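Troubleshooting: if your tokenizer reports a length mismatch, compare your output against this known-good record of 539 residues.
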Amino acid sequence: MKASDLFVRALEAEGVEYVFGIPGEENLDLLNSLRDSQIKLVLTRHEQAAGFMAATYGRITGKAGVCLATLGPGATNLVTPAAYAQLGAMPILMITGQKPIKTSKQGQFQIVDVVNMMRPLTKYTTQIVSGDNIPSRVREAFRRVKEERPGAGHLEFPEDIAREETDAQVIPQSSVRRATAEEKSIKHAVDMIEDAIHPLLLIGAGANRKLTAKMLRKFIDKAGIPFVSTQMGKGVVDERDPLFLGNAALSEGDFLHRAIEKADLIINVGHDVVKPGGTKVIHVNFSTAVVDPVYFPQVEVIGDIANSMWQICECVEVQRSWDFSYFMRVREHVERHLLQGADDIRFPMYPQRLVADVRKVMPADGIIALDNGMYKIWFARNYKAHQPNTVLLDNALATMGAGLPSAMAAHLVCPGRPVMAICGDGGFMMNSQELETAVRMNMNLVVLVLRDDAYGMIKWKQASMGFQSFGLDYSNPDFVKYAQSYGAHGHRIDAADGLVPQLAECFDQPGVHVIDLPVDYSDNDRVLNRELKESSKLL
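Known-good structure output:
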């Protein structure tokens, strides 16, 4: 068969549902082969958005998301999504085209060494040089990007190879079971937990797997050990739990850091950075720790995390010597602090009120996809996630521009659930053209644009460093008219008490809804940089 047809069959054998992207002339054979496939092509307006959508698809499903671009500028536009997926442990396969490799390359027109460009950003990158190699290259790429730790992969598919004839056959997926932790490491970990006085459980992104979440829930219920989460570990365990202390949204000075300092043992599940000092650390992960001045665990439990936590849970015995009184005092302070400003009537809207009102409207399984900005810290700290993958935020690459595409991918994967993109005006404008994609695909989506007419997070950092405000303010379009120009519904909030009813109305009505919400970040420095640090010292 034609090599491009074989390539599509190989994708089908991997269970691919969507290909996100923008084809170019070097992809036309592949595009024609996709036309007769069950795989759906999601045509986007920028390759970067396609990459973010593919990565978020992988993050939610655990299967590799696939995106497509042409050579040269199309491929270079996938660099940021590659880093986004690689640092965030999201399985993604990027396919790029190339000029013919067996005949003239038309000089240097649009020729970039994409394979080597992608090498430091991916787990696997290669050029397909023969139609006969397609099955093995595709199978290896999917295997690599999905195995723990997941990440990015890249295949370059030149146009002359796509036109070849081949007799090769698709290689089916293989069944793989991850190795389990060695019995002695489990015993050592259990002994350390039972010998501790103030053990604390830390949940990271690597624990965001269905079975792992179930085992963590079982361990917490049995042992009664308090827990905290990283930003990308939000929702692995229901954050309404009375043993949940909070989310590590700030680098230092939060109440949570006092609890970490007090702990004499941290059970670190699916994460790899813990504050150093006298604290002992148990590293529970798929792979060994990379030891550096910040992280040097005493015990490493290496293997399938869910199985490791099940074994630890089966063996550990609740100890009377455990003392969680300080942790519970931390939790009281955290809960009291999270309530401050939750009903503030000032307008433009206060961030604490914003988070509280969004939580009122969103059901337990509702999904919010955050872009990167000041609001991400407020949502990480103040918004309690009830289920896994209901708060999609990026604290790995922490790129702007991913919020809207991520929400769109979440809608495709979970079409019956409420989905909302929450973007700053800066991040929203970096990929706002994807409103057209969302409208064209008849998505039901709410996009909340938080407008402060500036790069708010950098202004916060600027203030915390004692610098005068400079160089970070800009103007915006009329977001209501902007949304309407794409065929979406535009709304503007003009009072603090208007957000909840407007959100409820938008979720009740089909279509894409863009809400312009002015926000007031003037208290960021006072609350997060000064008052919080002073208050936490009193614990």
